[in-house]
Amino acid sequence: RGPPSAFFHAHYVGNERLNPNLYVDGKVCLSLLGTWSGPSWDPQRSTMLQVLVSLQGLVLVEEPYFNEPGHECDTGTEQGKQASALYNEHARILALRAA
Length: 99
Known about the structure:
The protein is mainly α. The chain has helices at 48-59, 78-98. InterPro entries: UBC, UBQ-conjugating_enzyme/RWD.
């Protein structure tokens, strides 16, 4: 069996994203789901609990800015802190517009 499917329901219009791992078209980027590089789904060992914990711990994080490839090198820098704060502010505004 292949990995489970996940779909992000975006209730807003446009190409902006609340999170680098969650796309407006519903795609959820997570290696366990086969939508990103890294450890993949193993039908003999992987579980739905593992997927849910991975979503919570790797995607739904306090500073999603650093999930974007190339931004992890800014972790701990003043530039990274400012960019992350702006990203979060933009995501809040986008979420409020969609509410």
